[in-house]
Specification:
Elements: H1 9-24, H2 42-47, H3 54-57, H4 63-74, H5 79-92, H6 102-115, H7 124-140, H8 147-163, H9 167-178, H10 188-208, H11 215-231, H12 235-238, H13 243-250, H14 252-286
């Protein structure tokens, strides 16, 4: 076990002060992990170092938490919102707490969110999801799980996903497949589940708004047709005219659908990442 913030409330206060300094200087750049020496991502500014491994060695925080925090901040929209999330995030950590099990708890909450809205067909996909959840429950409650258990779960989840045809059950099955890793040994797993969960929520929002996956082949075909006809051999024209402008001119209904989908995706991201942030903060506060 690594004690969060090495058990130091003084470290927590220093991090909050450092974050406030970077917010005032407008040096937080919501993005994947980065630190230039003056500017950086949320985690980069908290560390003030380009060495991401210091998140664990210097702050006593699990590595998965760094990539998830940066991902949430990246989708916050602006420096002020990213900094506000960062302040809530650091304040929610109890110095000395063991945060390692929270990776699995977070994954279980995201999977549960999708399960409440998507039904998997009975059989291999449902069984694979149940096994992935069982393993994460074991990690979350500090019960032993072997690498062989995780490998078997991954094989089953991958095979099950390959057999799912319908879009939304496949999205949930893909999320379960992505979750078939132990966050303690594969820190990127939590980030990957967050990402695939957000994609699934976009697809759900699109279906609710009237978008259908079968629109995509026709859209792609029309875009290719317009590019080949008007832009392919005209590099200079490509600097001033886009294939989407041509789509609006020649296929106005397709243009409406593209705008609809882009708006749905933006709105889904605006809703999904704050929702995930609240789950994470709730788990941190309870640890």
């Amino acid at each position: 076990m690594i004690a969060a913030l090495h058990g130091s409330s003084d470290m927590q206060s220093r991090l909050l002060a450092r974050l406030g300094k970077h917010e005032q200087a407008k040096s937080i750049v919501p993005s994947a992990f980065a630190w230039t020496g003056e500017k950086g991502s949320l985690v980069g500014c908290l560390l003030e170092s380009p060495d991401a491994s210091q998140w664990e060695s210097e702050l006593g925080l699990p590595q998965w938490l760094a990539v998830v925090a940066d991902k949430i901040a990246q989708h916050s929209g602006d420096v002020e919102t990213a900094a506000a999330f960062g302040a809530r995030f650091i304040s929610a950590i109890s110095p000395g707490a063991d945060l390692e099990p929270l990776g699995s708890q977070f994954i279980l909450r995201l999977l549960g969110d999708l399960k409440g809205r998507i039904a998997l067909p009975a059989g291999a996909a449902s069984e694979a999801l149940a096994e992935v959840e069982r393993l994460h429950h074991c990690v979350a409650t500090k019960q032993p799980v072997t690498p062989q258990d995780w490998r078997a779960a991954r094989r089953a989840a991958t095979a099950a996903t390959d057999e799912v045809v319908d879009a939304m059950p496949r999205a949930l099955s893909t999320c379960a497949e992505t979750a078939a890793w132990n966050p303690a040994t594969s820190p990127a797993a939590v980030y990957d589940v967050l990402r695939t969960w957000a994609v699934a929520r976009k697809e759900l929002a699109a279906l609710d708004a009237g978008w259908r996956p079968e629109y995509e082949p026709t859209l792609r075909a029309h875009l290719k047709e317009l590019f080949d006809k008007y832009l392919k051999d005209k590099p200079e024209l490509q600097k001033t005219l886009t294939v989407f402008e041509l789509l609006a001119e020649h296929y106005p209904e397709d243009d409406r659908l593209v705008r609809l989908k882009n708006g749905i995706d933006r709105d889904a991201d605006k809703a999904s990442y704050p929702y995930a942030a609240n789950i994470l903060l709730e788990l941190l506060q309870a640890a």
